[in-house]
């Protein structure tokens, strides 16, 4: 369900497995409840991952630390990078996906043409197999299902993401890859390679992920 990456005085960083709920539901403990049970401590959520998404997840250990992290997230001072796999040819191979988001049918969201309070996503992509591309995603906002909608909107729903029309697979191929921030005058940076899924652990995918291992240093495409 999870692995602990860092256990600091004020916060905890874990990697969440794919297909694990964040909150408890249907009578089974979510990852946060399981952590609290296993560690016998009170935790405070400051961001979330969808059930299908694996990777880095941060929890505060006090209400004060939670308030500080919430402010950092609000001010976009916590930098998050995700990786995803998708089949097919995208409308563009790198750039931005920008637009307001609205609820759609069956718990889905959709991207609108308006930009009053838009979801902002920068991305790169690279072919890793015949008909399969790896995407490095940098969200500059924190909307529900933002990255899943962003890739679906350019014609390449995430592999295994059945809700948005992704091809059938052994998992939903979205992973929280990198997390970095400055907290109480100290810099922290975490990187986690996906360990679940045949396509994520394929040699060519791992090779490209290693090339992207310092995502903050890449020449990210400017917004037009």
From TrEMBL:
Extract one GO BP annotation from the record: enzyme-directed rRNA pseudouridine synthesis
Xref: SUPFAM superfamilies = Pseudouridine synthase
What range(s) does the Pseudouridine synthase RsuA/RluA-like domain occupy? 10-153
A molecular function (GO) held by this record is:
pseudouridine synthase activity
Q: List the Gene3D superfamilies hit by this protein, alphabetically.
A: Pseudouridine synthase
Which InterPro entries does this UniProt record tie to the protein? Answer: PsdUridine_synth_cat_dom_sf, PsdUridine_synth_RluA-like, PsdUridine_synth_RluA-like_CS, PsdUridine_synth_RsuA/RluA, RluA_PseudoU_synthase
Under the heading Pfam families, the entry gives:
PseudoU_synth_2
Similarity field? Belongs to the pseudouridine synthase RluA family.
Task: Give the protein's recorded name.
Answer: Pseudouridine synthase RsuA/RluA-like domain-containing protein
Which organism does this record belong to? Shewanella benthica KT99
């Amino acid at each position: 369900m999870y692995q602990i990456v860092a256990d600091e005085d004020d916060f905890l960083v874990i990697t969440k497995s794919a297909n694990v709920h964040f909150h408890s539901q249907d009578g089974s403990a979510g990852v946060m409840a399981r952590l609290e049970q296993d560690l016998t401590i009170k935790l405070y959520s400051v961001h979330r991952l969808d059930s299908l998404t694996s990777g880095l997840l941060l929890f505060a250990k006090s209400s004060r630390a939670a308030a500080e992290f919430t402010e950092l997230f609000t001010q976009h001072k916590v930098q998050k990078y995700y990786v995803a796999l998708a089949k097919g040819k995208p409308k563009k191979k790198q750039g931005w996906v920008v637009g307001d988001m609205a609820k759609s049918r069956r718990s889905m969201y959709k991207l609108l043409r308006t930009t009053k309070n838009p979801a902002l996503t920068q991305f790169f992509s690279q072919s890793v197999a015949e008909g399969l591309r790896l995407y490095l995603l940098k969200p500059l906002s924190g909307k529900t299902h933002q990255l899943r909608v962003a890739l679906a909107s350019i014609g390449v729903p995430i592999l295994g993401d059945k809700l948005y029309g992704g091809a059938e697979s052994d998992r939903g191929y979205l992973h929280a890859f990198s997390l970095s921030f400055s907290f109480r005058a100290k810099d922290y940076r975490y990187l986690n390679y996906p360990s679940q899924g045949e396509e994520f652990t394929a040699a060519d995918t791992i090779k490209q992920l290693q090339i992207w291992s310092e995502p903050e240093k890449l020449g990210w495409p400017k917004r037009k």
